[in-house]
Design brief:
The complex is a heterodimer of chains A (about 90) and B (about 160).
Chain A: H1 2-12, H2 24-27, H3 32-47, H4 54-83
Helix pairs in contact in A: 3-4
Chain B: H1 12-20, H2 24-28, H3 32-53, H4 64-70, H5 75-89, E1 96-99, E2 108-111, H6 117-143
Antiparallel strand pairs in B: 1-2
Helix pairs in contact in B: 1-6, 3-6, 4-6
The chains are: A mainly alpha (about 90), B mainly alpha (about 160).
Chain lengths: ~90, ~160
Amino acid sequence: MSSHLSDLCTTLAWAPFLQPAPGVQHWWWLLVIPMALGVSMAYKAIRVQNLDQWPMAVAKMTLQIVAAVVGIAVGLYLLVVVLLPLLPAE
Amino acid sequence: MPATSNDTTFRPLGAILGWVFPGLGHIAGGNAKRGFCAMAGVLVLFLGGLLVGGVDCVDRKEDRLWFFGQAGCGPIAFAASYANDALLKSGEAAPMIEMPSYPGQPEVFVSSYKGLAHANEFGTLFVFLAGLLNICVLLDATVRAPSSDAPSTGRRAGEGASK
């Protein structure tokens, strides 16, 4: 309870653009979504032939980037936690 | 690449305006909708970075290598760096904190609003990506034919070609 109250107070005292956003230290991995969205918006703005296709192209590329990052994360997890411990110690 | 024309004449004014503000090169060239789309993408990254990391994530003195990429955003990146100097490093916005230092070394003070760890890393990365993508956008503005998007607006492909 006191932890939630502390988090609430921290958020209410936040000065946007001056201070780092509260909670980022815990939820930093979710930032891949706005990052992928911004990259897709700018990239597809200069790549699509017809701008009517822009929203769908942005959504598709955003999902592709997020899926690729999740895939790399799963692959590295399997490599480090599952495969590497199976190797002989010597 | 131009959408409806083969006119790929190099237009340096598009690059200059695109650097002055993201998307302005396309808007000035008659491709307003494309310019606003590009502007939205670059500003999502730029403002998102400042929101996540604060203005401390743009620092042309302490993070010079990152700033080379961030400067691709144009004057807004320099304004953010100036705000960092004027508000945070001067102690104007928040009290300064003394940092641990070696005996005999001068005392070091930093702003209590200084970004650390993930917040600073992601903020810096967001603004850096905004700068790199704006360079792509302004390069596109130099070779895209003026008003090349206009024929496709309000009309589907194949419509109105002949009567």
